[in-house]
Every structure is written in structure tokens, then in C-alpha cells.
Write a structure and sequence with these properties.
Elements lengths: L2 H6 L4 H16 L3 H11 L4 H16 L1 H12 L8 H16 L4 H16 L1 H14 L4 H8 L7 H8 L4 H10 L4 H11 L5 E5 L6 H8 L2 E2 L6 E4 L8 H4 L3 E3 L2 H12 L8 E4 L6 H13 L2 E6 L2 H10 L5 E5 L11 E7 L23 H18 E11 L8 H10 L4 E3 L16 E2 L2 H4 L5 E6 L1
The structure holds S-adenosylmethionine.
Function: May act as RNA methyltransferase.
GO molecular function, one term: RNA binding
GO biological process, one term: RNA methylation
Length: 452
């Protein structure tokens, strides 16, 4: 076959979309879960092709560190000496070889086609040689060869095996009290594709009704939750019509906790201090509507404030675009939700590439901001009022550390046992609640409740 004809050989749309998304993630720090669905829609890639593109893109993005170690060993050079476009295709090919049931021949030949159509025969030969070498062993054999030994470095071994940066595995290990079994289960759960959870909007549809119309199953803990077995939630009428949304069950439990905590003589002044994009605000506001309360929702980003406005239409909410540390609100709130900006280490499974982008250096700035926000929340509470502080992170600095620091500065504030606010099992010793994917099937949400 002539070179031109080889270049013209069509490549399959699923792998092409996966490659282009990985490229956007690498070149412009894009988010795979925003780029891919849009690309699939624009290119009219649907059904099985869309499912394959999703599996390959998110899988390869999530496993990047593990894949790169294998590619580097097979190519006999560090990955940063490999051209970026070639590396994207090698990651896709290696992911297929190690972590899917796609046959080796198909995984290698489709990768070679992808690179040949764009870059020609030379790079295609390199991809072919590297992937053939990768295909000579399965994932376990590569891990045995490349991971630190279990005996010398258990955390390092588990981090490598379940494709997490080592520092994140260390954070999980600390938060889980050093138990190796728990750490292994947590990393394994975090390495899986997360289930889709729907929230039934209170007052509009019940979880039972939503389960019926969506073909899903009522959730274990949140009375508003439905587990969706598969398919695109955006195609459900209940979502399109605003009766339901997509929201992790852990986040639902946090929003609900704010509404069920005992507050004597509640005057109906409720506040969500960091509300964008509005997932928890929508749930809290729907309950506020039923209870005759009102929600002020503060968000510093104009774009995210717009997203809140879309989800709280027709609900008793005022959206304020402001820095919540100095938003000029009149104190005296009965209930305040502070769902603080955080490292997001508890929802890594929902943002495939995030674990490879974050670094421990992000933490100190976030912790300072969290303490300032929680201090302001305390100031805005009326005596007897409650703030629910939450993060989608199990990092002790962002969770128990922030709460302890603010309690130490504010003798007028007491911590309530948040376990009584969360209808779930395995909630530990309290008084805070830490949820986990491997225990509760939710994101690793943290919440603490403080009464002034
Ligand atoms: C964890 S997210 C909140 C998620 C939201 N509660 C939900 O359930 O959809 C934190 C939000 O706080 C916002 N934020 C960050 N710093 C802020 C500040 N100083 N004041 C107000 N909002 C802030 C971020 O833009 C982000 O939208």
C-alpha cells in the first residue's frame, strides 16, 4: 500500500475522540469530562462508540502514572522524551492492553492506525514496537516488575498498583488511620469508574418515582438518591425538565444535614456561602421552599453564579456574586452551609485527570482560605444557629484541622455530633463524618456541624 493510501485509512471515531480529548487535557489543561461529551455530540459519535470513547479516555486519564511507567520501561526512555501526540496514543494503546478485554492485535493495530493517519510511518513503527513490548505481559506482571516492593514500601506499592500519586495515597492512609487493608480498598474504589447518582428534587418528584422513570434503583442513604445503572443521564426527561439532577449521594447527605439539624426557633434565614455551581444549593433551596425558609447563595465566580441561577429558578434564593469572607451580609443566619473550596481529593474518580494535576503545594493556601471562611461563617450565625462545614476531601488539614483551629479561637462555638445528621452506617467515632467510596459508595465527603 502506498504511503498516501495508508495515511487515508479511516481511523475509528471512538479512539479518535479519545485521542483528541487526551491531547486537550495534556496541551491545554482541559477537563476530560467537559471536553469529551461535547466532542462526541459535535461529531455525532453515539451508542457503543460513545461508550468505548468514554471508557478509553477516562480510563487512560485516570491511570496515567501507571501507564507512563510501563510505556517508559517498554520504550526504554522517560516519557518526557516522547513526542506528546505519540504519547497520547501510547497511553490509549497501553490502557487497552492492560486494563480492557480488547484483544492485543486490535489494541496495537488501531493505535498504529491512529498515529499513522496523522504522523506517518516513522512514529507508527515506534508505536507498534512499544505496544508489542507492552503486550508481552499483563498488568500484574508489569506491576510486579515496576512497583516498589510491598515489604519495603507498602504505600508506594499500593499507590503504583491503583494508579495514584504517592502523596495522595499517603493522605488517604493518614485519614484512614494507617490501615493497609482500608487504604487498599480506598485506592481500588477510587480507581474505578464512579456510578451515576441522581437527586430527586424535593417537592417535585420522589426518589421512588425517579427510580421508576429512569430505570434506576433507590439509593441506600439519601432519601433523594437514585443510582442510575448506565446510559446518559442528560437524556432523561426528569433531568431535562428540572425534576432531578446529577449529584453524588455524599453531596446530597451534606445538603440534607443542613436542613435536618435541630435549630430552635428557626427564622428561615439560611445561607450557602460557597454555592457554585449550585448542586447543594438546589437541594437545600427545594427543602427551604417546603419549610417556608429562604436561602442566600454566595459565589465568587460570576460564571458559577450563573450556573446557580439556572438550577434554583423558581426557588426562594438570592444569588450574590461576592467573596464570602466579605460579602456584606447581615449576621443572624439560622443555618449556614460552608462547602469550602478544597483540593477535591475526595472526588478524584469523577475527574479522571485531576489526581495527576494536583500537588501537595496546593494545600496551605486552601487551608488558610477555609479557616477564614469558617471564621466568617461563625460570625454570621445567630446564637443557636448551626454551620455545616464540608469538603470533598478527606485531607486532615482541610477537614479536622480547620475545624479544630476555628473551635480553638471561638469558645462560644460547640461541635455537634454530625453522625446524627447522616442516615448512613460505618460513621466511625464522630463527632465529624467522613464518607468514603469504598465504604459508602459516595465521594469522600467530610462534614462537621458547629453550633454557636
Ligand atoms: C466545593 S465548591 C462548592 C460546590 C457547591 N456547594 C455545589 O454543591 O455545587 C466551592 C465553590 O466556592 C467558590 N469559592 C471559592 N472561594 C470563594 C470565596 N472566597 N467566596 C465565595 N465563593 C468562593 C468556588 O468558586 C466554588 O464554586
Amino acid at each position: 500500500m502506498k504511503k498516501a493510501a495508508l495515511r487515508d485509512k479511516p481511523v475509528d471515531p471512538a479512539r479518535e475522540a479519545a485521542r483528541d480529548t487526551l491531547r486537550a487535557v495534556r496541551e491545554r489543561d482541559a477537563y476530560a469530562n467537559l471536553v469529551l461529551p461535547k466532542m462526541l455530540r459535535e461529531r455525532r459519535v453515539t451508542g457503543r462508540d460513545a461508550a468505548l470513547a468514554t471508557e478509553l479516555t477516562y480510563g487512560a486519564a485516570r491511570a496515567q502514572g501507571l501507564l507512563d511507567a510501563v510505556i517508559s520501561a517498554a520504550a526504554n526512555r522517560p516519557v518526557d522524551e516522547i513526542d506528546g501526540a505519540v504519547l497520547d496514543v501510547l497511553r490509549l494503546g497501553t490502557y487497552q492492553l492492560l486494563r480492557t478485554r480488547i484483544g492485543s492485535h486490535a489494541a496495537v493495530s488501531t493505535s498504529v492506525d491512529l498515529i499513522r493517519s496523522e504522523m506517518g510511518m516513522g512514529p507508527a513503527g515506534f508505536v507498534n514496537a512499544v505496544l508489542r513490548k507492552v503486550s508481552q505481559r499483563d498488568e500484574d506482571l508489569w506491576i510486579d516488575d515496576l512497583a516498589p516492593s510491598m515489604a519495603d514500601d507498602l504505600v508506594g506499592n499500593l499507590a503504583f498498583r491503583y494508579a495514584h500519586p504517592r502523596w495522595i495515597a499517603e493522605v488517604f492512609s493518614d485519614a484512614l488511620g494507617g490501615s493497609a487493608g482500608q487504604l487498599q480498598a480506598a485506592l481500588a474504589a477510587d480507581d474505578e469508574r464512579p456510578p451515576v447518582h441522581l437527586v430527586a428534587r424535593p417537592g417535585l418528584i420522589t426518589a421512588e418515582e425517579l427510580a421508576l422513570v429512569s430505570g434506576g434503583e433507590v439509593g441506600r442513604y439519601s432519601p433523594y438518591c437514585v443510582y442510575l445503572p448506565g446510559g446518559d443521564p442528560g437524556e432523561l426527561d426528569a433531568i431535562r425538565d428540572g425534576y432531578a439532577g446529577v449529584q453524588d449521594e455524599g453531596s446530597q447527605l451534606v445538603g440534607r444535614a443542613l436542613t435536618v439539624v435541630e435549630v430552635a426557633d428557626d427564622t428561615g434565614r439560611w445561607l450557602d456561602m460557597c454555592a457554585g455551581p449550585g448542586g447543594k444549593a438546589a437541594l437545600v433551596a427545594a427543602i427551604a421552599d417546603i419549610d417556608g425558609a429562604h436561602l442566600d447563595a454566595v459565589e465568587v465566580s460570576e460564571h458559577r453564579a450563573d450556573l446557580i441561577r439556572k438550577v434554583v429558578r423558581d426557588l426562594p434564593v438570592d444569588v450574590h456574586v461576592a467573596d464570602a469572607r466579605s460579602a456584606g451580609l447581615t449576621p443572624g443566619f439560622d443555618r449556614i452551609l460552608l462547602d469550602a473550596p478544597c483540593s477535591g481529593l475526595g472526588s478524584l474518580r469523577r475527574r479522571p485527570e485531576a489526581r495527576w494535576r494536583r500537588g501537595p503545594d496546593d494545600l496551605p493556601g486552601l487551608v488558610t482560605l477555609q479557616r477564614q471562611l469558617l471564621t466568617e461563617a461563625v460570625r454570621l450565625l445567630r446564637p443557636g444557629g448551626v454551620v455545616v462545614y464540608s469538603t470533598c476531601s478527606p485531607h486532615p488539614d482541610e477537614t479536622v484541622g480547620v475545624v479544630a483551629a476555628v473551635l480553638a479561637d471561638h469558645p462560644e462555638v460547640e461541635q455537634i455530633d454530625a453522625r446524627s445528621l447522616v442516615p448512613a452506617d460505618h460513621l466511625g467515632d464522630g463527632p465529624h463524618v467522613q464518607l468514603w467510596p469504598h465504604i459508602h459508595g459516595t465521594d469522600a465527603m467530610f462534614l462537621a456541624a458547629l453550633r454557636r
